[in-house]
Amino acid sequence: MYYRPSRLLKFDDNTKFFANVENQDNVEQLRKDLTAMYQWTVDWQMLFSIWINVWYCTLVTIMVITNHEYRMGGITLESVCQERDLGVLVDSGLKFSHQCVKAVSEAKRTLRMIKRSLTNTDSHTTIALYQSLVSAVVCGF
Fold first, then answer.
1. Backbone angles phi and psi of 98, in degrees to 5
2. Which one-letter DSSP state was computed for residue 113?
3. Are 59 and 80 a contacting pair, CB within 8 Å?
4. Quick check: 86 and 11 in contact, CB under 8 A?
5. pTM, whole model, 2 decimals?
6. Distance (Å, rounded) from C-alpha 25 to C-alpha 14?
7. Integer Cα distance of 41 and 60 in angstroms
8. What beta strand segments (E) does the chain contain?
9. How far apart are CA 88 and CA 12, in angstroms?
10. Neighbours of 83 (CB within 10 A)
11. What residue segments make up the domains of the chain, in order of their start?
12. Who's near 103: CB < 8 A, 6+ residues apart?
């Protein structure tokens, strides 16, 4: 049986470790790969970063429901339904609806703050604030 090994992607100080898991052999291979990655940090004496960062490691299962447990350094990785990656909130179904809801909610909150703070202003000031604050919130998500 062909197994495509786990892959590792780096962006700045963020590391993504992923694999296609279709059967129990793939589960075991991913566990071995995680152990090997952890052992590499031990061998290179990167214990400070790994002990701090393992607590921030999460497991996102895409498109399937699984109950497999993965560990790094004796710590069980937390399984989550959604994760923010490079500013984008992605859920396990690869849907971005949570991202849109959060952006709209934040934009409405900012608009309410503008209305509460400014009582006697002309429409140009309100529009300028709206464009700079609310648009930045929506585009920033």
1. -60, -35
2. H
3. yes
4. yes
5. 0.62
6. 28
7. 22
8. 7-11, 14-18, 58-60, 71-72, 75-76, 78-80, 82-85, 88-91
9. 16
10. 13
11. 7-91, 97-140
12. 137, 138, 141
